[in-house]
Amino acid sequence: MNSENGCFKGNGKCFCFFCLQDKYAEVLATLFIIGICAGTHFLNIMIHEDIGTFLSTAALISDSTVLVSLVVFFVGLFLQKSFLLKQVTVVFAVYIFFSLACFCCNFITLIFGDCYRETYNLFTVYTDFYLEENPDTKLEESEIKKNLKTKFYLEVVAHMLSLGFMIYYYITTSSYVEKINETEEIYVHKILDNNNFNINISDNSNSSNYGKYNRTFNSSKNYSAV
């Protein structure tokens, strides 16, 4: 995913840390994205947390997996081991897909939240939850629904921004990992070339010594014959 324009020119690092060396820019970007993922966990389940447990469980497993993957990647940045770095591109891609699915589910539910009957109306359900938890509230039911809508819509915007950050991080990190892999491949090729060169020199030296030995042996035989 190397790009030769803009923020991706010659390296894979976030524009926020463009003035830093590649490794340190990636370290800071990873710390930042760990916080983003922790917050995204709550955005993924912002609607269904109080309604069902399946999505909450799936989100917890998904978030735990990606956080472990990012910690392993973080360690790999200092050890510069490609096998520790490569895994994050797969795990993070799956996490982005999961978060995007949660976003679409939340967004569609909000858009059509008022279209259902009262029993299944999202805002009615959450208004009832609010009234149960705050029986002494002085707010009218319409005000509570309005506040809930504002809260949910702001969370949707935050979810969109977090997805944007994660996709951007995935692109830059994939570019960085690809760059590390290319560096390792070049290093391995150099070692192999040096080994082959040394073997050729050794073979040539042995051939030369063998030729000298034959000439000396033949000269000795000729001298003895005379």
UniProtKB/TrEMBL annotation:
TM segment ranges: 27-47, 54-78, 90-112, 152-171
Q: What is the name attached to this protein's record?
A: Uncharacterized protein
UniProt entry keywords in alphabetical sequence = Membrane, Transmembrane, Transmembrane helix
